[in-house]
Amino acid sequence: MSNEKSRFVDRLFSNGRRELFAYLSRKVGREDASDLLQDTFVRVLRHGQFDTVDDPQSLLKRIAVNLTRDHARRRRTEARVIDAEAELDLAASTDHRPDARLEAEEKWRLLCEAVDGLPPRCREVFLLFMTEGRDLGEIAVRLGISRNMAQKHMRLAMARCWAAVE
């Protein structure tokens, strides 16, 4: 990075750091805010031509807003996974059938095998959707495919997962 760009980023960071940290703290809490603040500036640096942007502060804010949305999606997905695991544990512990836990474990194994057996791009779409909580539009952009193709991958993944556990 040239000295001019380095000075530009330094000024941008100095001028926008406090405001962005306050915004991020309100949205995600102080603990996660510092990580998201750092991610915001990393993305600015990756932007490549950030020094030609008309309103760098708006760019920072837009990136921070997008990161808080991503963060919220990840949290919701984590909560769904934890809830599903808790339900599985509860079902296994409260069901008086001796084979209930084995049945649940077998379904989990079959589901994992189904996901592992997906074509690579299809598996990637499925995992981004399920583990990171990304919507299909974001996944399409991230992977450089059309939204329609992302939907097709997701339909195939869901069909194979359902077929595996039924």
Please give a quick description of this structure.
The protein is mainly alpha-helical and 166 residues long. Helix content is 84%, strand content 0%.
What report would you give on this structure?
The chain is elongated and about 65 Å long. Helix content is 84%, strand content 0%. The longest helix has 39 residues, at 56-94. With 166 residues, it is mostly helical.
Proportion in helices: over 70%
Tertiary shape: elongated
Main β-sheet description: none
What is the tally of beta strands? Answer: 0
Which parts are unreliable, with pLDDT below 50 for 5 consecutive residues or more?
Answer: none
- Mean of the pLDDT scores? 80
Radius of gyration: 21 Å
Give the oligomeric state of the chains in this entry, treating copies of one chain as homo and distinct chains as hetero.
single chain
Overall SS class: mainly alpha
Q: Cα distance, first to last residue?
A: 55 Å
Q: Into which percentage range does the β-strand content fall?
A: under 5%
> H/E series, N to C?
HHHHHHH
